[in-house]
Design goal:
By secondary structure, the chain is α/β, with parallel strands linked by helices. The chain contains 22 helices and 19 strands. The relative contact order is 0.06.
């Protein structure tokens, strides 16, 4: 029996060495630390017990006894802590500290066991056959140690049994089963030894057998069932190092796993004893965030939760909640919002600038062109008329440049609308030719027109914008062609589902475009081949505006060019066919008096009509009244909002023109006060403005104006507008029908 016991001890030592080697080799977590601690104290106790069994006198035995207890005191505690960690269970740190201090005190008393009776109050060294041993009776610390060891055994069995019941994975379940048997074996051997239930327990410490069997079972769990598998440990490590918080709940909504980021997000998880108590609150907070689509904010971090159902064999076994750390993304989005706000503010500032520029520049142009119109109407001197016509041409050119900038602003901001109307393509082409022919004639260029007579007579589309695109290209063709010709070809595709593609091709024999300049052709404010065109007027926006307009109409501008020979620009727009009858032969309708100064004749007389003009700039009022003086209307003027309000309250007006940008009280505020004081006769309110940026029309209509007149005011257009709003009975001697 003696040799058998020694053999068991030697085998146990070998097994413990193997476990220590495996533990050190795979070390990656706290679990390995507790296992290594348990193996070391077991190894120390087994080695010392060999010395006890081979001792033949009391001194040698007591020395080995004290060395052995350096391990034995900690065996139960180390195995218990390993079990708790293996089961991912909670055990208070304070209790761990108290137990550690208790065992340390017990060992200090054992070192002085001959001089105190705290651990043994009686002991006697005897040799029973081949087994040397101490006959003893326990002191108070002996029973404390015994109670602790029994607690470790019972608590360890509880934790491992609970983990075994909850575990679903077959391999993990087997690991728990083996550890359950190992702990039960240690507990059984301890009971046998303490109560001396068998004869062998009276001669030597039978717990050695329990430890040996336990070590063998742990080896099986480690080697066969990968209890310390490095890959599993690595996976746990990786999960802990994720920026995402991971919380796993079982089918009963109890938290069964979480990683370190989740613990930082929900500090209550750090106290495992409170998990069960607060599990419902944690899961509820996550679910509410998912349902509301809102992030969870904690410790200056922002987490976005997502739920993933865990399915095994078609059955839901729980839910994995992933809480992504989106702090940087939210900060990035906030920064984007700030930058967008800055951009919006800059865009708004640009809009204000354009509005002011439109107002400030159009106001003097209004005066120049208005007064020039009065010279053309009244002067009979040929030289004066020629000077006035030159002033008018230059003023129109300046106005075109300003309109280009404003149109570009509208396209850039996406506020320019495409408004389809019915129109005759033949009439539109006639208008284009009439507008471009004189410019071409001045440069000695031939104008070639090719119009497909089969184009439907009536189409629906934005005639104004199509005409603007074609006119921009024709104007450029004239500007950049010194000699030769320009041509306009208008064609269409076969009708399909009530629609055709109306195609425009504008060609010239001008300077052409270099291949390397093609990529800059559509860039706003950029003029290519600057050396050759520096004396040619223009804003550099025409092509860019045309491109933007065509894109709004679902089309694109095609360009072909040979440097030094000429260019061809083309585009096609989809148009609805309202009347499929052919347009017929192309025929340019010319003004009968073209080339000669047209004699002015007012469009109507209305001596009973009364209008009020409100403007803070004297020259604007002067231009307005001079343009309408032959209409015989009664025209009153006011230079401010308050003055206009008093005048409107004192007499009835058919139409009131109100300037928008006035000091003290602007036009919109003036309109509001006038409407509040309206009596029985309600006049028509029309905005008088130099503001021609995008959204101006909508702004004035929304404010309550019936219409608006943009400066510079054109006499004929103004008369037509007034005719459309005056009562018919007040219109006399009209020369046009509305």
């Amino acid at each position: 029996m003696y040799q058998f016991v020694l053999s068991i001890l030697y085998l146990s030592l070998v097994g413990l060495f193997v476990i220590c080697w495996f533990t050190l080799r795979k070390w990656s977590s706290k679990l390995h630390a507790y296992l290594f601690f348990s193996c070391v104290v077991n190894l120390e106790y087994n080695a010392a017990y060999v010395l006890q069994l081979t001792a033949r006198d009391q001194n040698a035995y007591m020395s080995a006894f004290k060395i052995g207890y350096l391990g034995r005191v900690w065996i139960g505690m180390s195995l218990f802590l390993f079990t708790v960690e293996l089961c991912n269970a909670y055990f208070p740190k304070i209790l761990k500290t108290v137990m550690g201090l208790t065992h340390a005190i017990i060992y200090v008393c054992i070192l002085e066991i001959e001089y105190n009776d705290l651990y043994y109050n009686y002991m006697e060294f005897v040799v029973d056959g081949d087994f040397p041993r101490l006959i003893h009776t326990g002191g108070p610390l002996y029973y404390v140690q015994t109670a602790l060891n029994l607690f470790y055994a019972v608590a360890g069995l509880y934790y491992i049994t609970r983990a075994f019941i909850r575990e679903k994975a077959p391999v993990a379940k087997k690991r728990y089963m083996i550890m359950m048997i190992a702990i039960f074996t240690v507990a059984t051997s301890y009971v046998l030894y303490f109560f001396k239930l068998i004869d062998l327990a009276k001669k030597f410490d039978v717990m050695i057998f329990g430890f040996a069997i336990s070590n063998a079972l742990m080896l099986v769990a480690i080697i066969k069932y990968k209890m310390l598998d490095a890959r599993a440990a690595a996976r746990n490590y990786v999960v802990d190092e994720l920026s995402e918080g991971i919380i796993v709940v079982d089918a009963g909504e109890r938290i069964s796993y979480y990683n370190k980021p989740a613990q930082r997000l929900f500090p209550v998880l750090a106290n495992k004893g409170l998990i069960a108590e607060h599990s419902e609150d944690v899961v509820k907070a996550i679910r509410e965030a998912i349902d509301k689509g809102t992030p969870i904010r904690m410790n200056d971090r922002i987490y976005t939760p997502k739920a993933n159902h865990l399915i095994e064999d078609g059955v839901s076994v729980g839910t994995l909640y992933a809480l992504g750390d989106d702090t940087e993304q939210y900060r990035y989005m906030n920064e984007l919002r700030k930058q967008r706000q800055i951009a919006d503010n800059a865009n708004e500032a640009k809009s204000h600038f354009l509005a002011n520029m439109s107002h400030e520049i159009r106001t003097p142009i209004n005066a120049i062109l208005g007064m020039d119109e009065m010279i053309l109407r009244t002067s009979r001197e040929k030289e004066v008329v020629e000077f006035a016509e030159d002033i008018q041409a230059s003023g129109r050119t300046l106005l075109t440049l300003i309109n280009d900038i404003l149109d570009f602003s509208k396209v850039e901001e996406g506020k320019l609308e495409i408004i389809p109307v019915s129109y005759e393509p033949g009439v539109m082409v006639n208008d284009l030719v009439n507008m471009i022919r004189e410019r071409a004639k001045e440069k000695g260029l031939a104008v070639k027109i090719e119009f497909n007579r089969n184009i439907p007579r009536l189409l629906k589309g934005d005639e104004i914008r199509i005409k603007q695109c074609a006119l921009n290209l024709l104007t450029n063709a004239v500007k950049y062609t010194k000699e030769g010709s320009i041509s306009l070809k208008v064609d269409c595709s076969a009708p399909e589902d009530g629609y055709i593609y109306l195609k425009f091709v504008i060609a010239d024999t001008g300077i052409g475009i270099k291949p390397e300049d093609m990529e800059n052709l559509f860039s706003p404010f950029m003029r290519i081949d600057e050396e050759k065109i520096r004396n040619i007027e223009g804003s550099g926006l025409g092509i860019s505006i045309t491109k933007g307009l065509l894109e709004l109409m679902g089309s694109r501008l095609e360009v072909e060019s040979t440097y030094g020979e000429g260019s061809v620009f083309s585009f096609s727009v989809r148009q609805e066919v309202l009347n499929g009858e052919a347009s017929g032969d192309y025929d340019v309708r010319m003004d009968p008096g073209e080339g000669k100064k047209r004699e002015y004749k007012e469009l109507f007389h209305a001596p009973d009509a009364r209008i009020l003009v409100v403007d803070d700039i004297r020259m604007n009022i002067l231009v307005f009244t001079k343009l309408l003086r032959n209409s015989q209307m009664q025209i009153d003027t006011a230079s401010s909002g308050p003055e206009a309000i008093k005048m409107a309250a004192g007499r009835p007006y058919d139409i009131i023109f109100i300037d928008h940008l006035m000091p003290e009280m602007d036009g919109i505020e003036t309109l509001k006060h006038m409407k509040e004081a309206e009596g029985g006769d309600r006049p028509v309110y029309i905005a008088l403005t130099a503001n021609a940026i995008s959204g101006a029309r909508e702004m004035y209509l929304d404010a309550g104006f019936a219409d608006y007149v943009s400066k510079p005011v054109e006499g004929e257009k103004l008369e037509k507008l007034i005719m459309s709003y005056l009562p018919p009975e007040k219109l006399l001697d009209t020369h046009i029908s509305l």
